[in-house]
Every structure is written in C-alpha cells, then in structure tokens.
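Many introductory courses stop at the sequence. We go one step further.
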Amino acid sequence: MSSDFSRRDFLRYSGATGAAAFIAATLSACSGGPASTGSVGAGTNKDLITAVIGYGNDQSWDPTQTASAFAMAGIQHVYEGLLDTDPITREPYPALATALPADLNATTWTFTLRDGAKWHDGQPVTADDVVFTFERILGPDNVLTGNFFKSWLKEVKKVDDKNVELVFKFAFPDAAPRLTIAKIMPKHVFSQPGAWDQAKSGKAVGSGPYKQTAHNPKSNTQFEAFDGYSGPRPATVKKMNWLTIVDAAARVAKISGGSAEAQIADNIPYANVDQLKQQGLTVEGGKGMNHMFLMFNTGTKPFDDVRVRQALHYAIDKKKMIDVALKGHGTASSSFLNEGHPDHKRASVVYDYDPDKAKALLKEAGVSNLTVNLMAVNVSWIVDCLPTIAASWEAVGIKTTLEPQDTAALFTKMDQFQDYQVVAAASNPQQFGMDADLILHYNYVPGGLWMKYSHWDGSKDAEKLFSMMDEAGKETDQAKKSELIHKYLDLVAEVAILYPVVHNELMTAWDPKKISGIRAQPYPGINVLQAKRT
C-alpha cells in the first residue's frame, strides 16, 4: 500500500465530518485479538484514568496525516512538537524545544532540543527526527497538515544533532502555536518500509509523557506513564484506558451511577446534561468553532446563483434549531468564525432569520418551485437539526427531502464527485489551532477537496479570496492583519459556498470526586495532561 495520502485517505481520517469508514488493521504487536475494554476496579484505582471518547478509534494515528478526533486527542499525550500549546488557551510553550522563539517576526527560527529527550523505545531524539518529520509534512502528497505550513515554511535544516533551523518564506508570527500540529516522529522507526501504513493503523512511538501499550481499533487504546520523559508536563497517573463508544446511550451509561467505570467522557448529549449533574458529575461546555455548515454544488443550477444560496441561509429558523435540537447550547453564525474567537466580527452579510428576504431573493433569481435534496451526515446532533431546516425551507416554498446517511458513505460519493445539490455536515478545524488563517485554510485552499466538491475552485471569487488570504498571512502588524482577515471573512460570508449555520457547544462530563484538573474543550476529545485522580 502506498504511503501517498490520497483523497480517499483524507476522507477516512478527516475529523471535519467525524468520518469513520476506514477499518484499520490491528497492530501486529497486539496479537491475540482485542483486549477487554474493562478494567477491574477501574472506578477506585487511583493509578488509572478511564476515559470515554464519543468518536471512532478506527482511523489514522499518523500525526502528519490525521484529523481523527480520538487519535488527535491520544497523540497529544504520546507525541510532542518543538512547541506545544495549552489545550484551552492555545498559548504555546516549549515542548521538545528548550525555549520559545526570541523574535516572532524573524524569518528564521533556531530551536535547541531539550537534554534527555528520548523516544519510547529508548533512542535519543535528534535533529534528524525533526527534519524527517517536516520533510513529510511539506511533501507533495500531504494534503492535510501540509496546508497549514506550506504557504509560509520554506524548509527545516539540521544545524547539528541538538539544533534545527526553520526557514520561512516571510515573517509569520502565528507559526509559534502552529508548530504544535507538527508532532515530531522518530526517523529510525517511521522511515522503515511500510511504517507509515503501520502509523495509520495505530502504531505510535513518541517522546511524550505517555506511551501507547495497546491499541484495539473498535474498542480501546491503553497508555502507561513513560519513565524516560524529561519534558514540562509529566504523566500524572501510571495508566490510562480510553474507550471508544460512539453510541450516546452506552457512553452516558459508562460514566453514570455509583459503580461507573469511567471518570470522564466527552461528546455528552444535551438531553443527558441535567441527569448527569443530578448524579453529582460536573458537566461543562466548550464554545468554539464546532459548527454545522451548508455546502452547495455551484456546478448545478440554481446553486451557481449566490442569491439562491443566500436565500436558503436566510430561510432557516436558527433560534428554533438552537432551542429544539441543541437545547440552547448553540449560537447562530454571524461570521465564519465563532463568537468569542479573537478575530470574530459580525460579517458584512449575516443570515439572520428572514423568510421574506429569502422569498425575495428567490424571486429576484427567477427561481420558483425549487426542490432541494439535502444530503447530510448522520451525526446525532446534525440529524436533530435537519427537521428545522426542512420546515424552514418548506415555509418559503422550497420542497425539501432529507437524506442523512453514514458519514463515510456520503463523502465517498463526494470523493467520486457524484452529483448533489446541498450537503449539511459538521466541522471543527479548531482541533488544529485557533488562528483565522489556519481555520480558513482547512476549507478554503486552492486545489483543496472542499473547493473541488463545491465546484468553486478556479472561479474569480475563489481566486480573489485566496489572494486576500495570502495578503493577510504575510501581514505582521496585528491591527492591519485583523482588518485584512475581516475583509476576507466578509467575502466568505457573502458568497456562501461552505458556510456555518450554527456554532454549538461540546459537552464534557467528569466526576469531581474521582478526577481533578479537567477543562472542557471547545473541540472533540479530551486532554488529561494536567489531570489527577483524587
């Protein structure tokens, strides 16, 4: 199997839609079949954290090529970047490197690797490993993490065994938090034939505080504290067992009651929040970029007309959607970025609920008796939102059929460029980082999959947007940069090619009597690097 990262690989591993369809091969090291997901005495064993993750664990564990929610959360505990970021504030701190860059506006950054940094197999971390990792990220076949680096990073050079130099195409201060995406990987392990395929299937050899000890794609992944870790955030417990439970009822049951096996669970359904709180659990939401978007096929009439796309957005009763489907845990989109984001500003076009305007735009576009087939991923909260969309569109005279389906099935059709009209799906690029340039590059990039799916790539408006994004990326004055960001966000709102309808909270629950140091994330997964059993 080639190590090239194909379109199909992107869909298999992309957390943008929670895609799961890839059945990863079990690690050869994990012979004898899947281990039990249970742990004797899990609820009272203070040397163990048992966590429940509400996303599939059968996707890629290759840090350079994954957007899997489960894998990315695990990778934060197993691997390190030169710099890493706090999971909530996203402020960078030295990880494998000994210090932050002295001058963020410099066009070369030199990093020294910390003394005593070792891989989980005992070998030392060297500059060769850093160069090896960045060569993979900057390579021509990397269509995921490469998009976050290729516009500004020219190359990474070895100075000596302990020092590396990053050479930029232009000054790019946002590179500091961006470096957490580039988890450094051991060259002696992953340069071997077939090793990248093993990484996709779950093999993990890092330098972080926890080492992976078992990986069973359909059930769980286990970790142990790495005694050789010399970094800033050492392991706080001896062992961790992370269970993958996609079914909401089973996930809630695992953390419920006096004999609950798990101490923490993410992706808590809104309907269960009060129930868990009454049992003494802490349930908190993280507000961020998690959202439902609509994507239009501009190669199919009448969706090539911006007035039709705008009309479909104006027609949606977002308050009803938030009240009924999201139980109040959402906000109507007023920009591509969520409210609360440092660069958020109400866009020049905001799709407040306005059915009369929707009707007027359709009439102006000469469209009547429109029938729309809305394809959608079957993520539970997305499915809950679909009836409101259908009722809203029917109210302005648009006959609507809903077609929710398995995420992998839907995006296999997209990958084959089958014909469609409108797609509703979930996305959260914030799992990679917070800056606007990164978030937009997740969807809006020349030659990118989303642009091809929407048949918008190559249009004059697309070329204008990409040029505006490039201009903003090169600006080092923060005030001027923000102004340029707001201009291209206005364009993204106006054209409504791929655009959020609502941003929603992600709920995390934990037992404060058994675990402390938890903070709810605004993106899928958990981070327990600073958590402790109590």
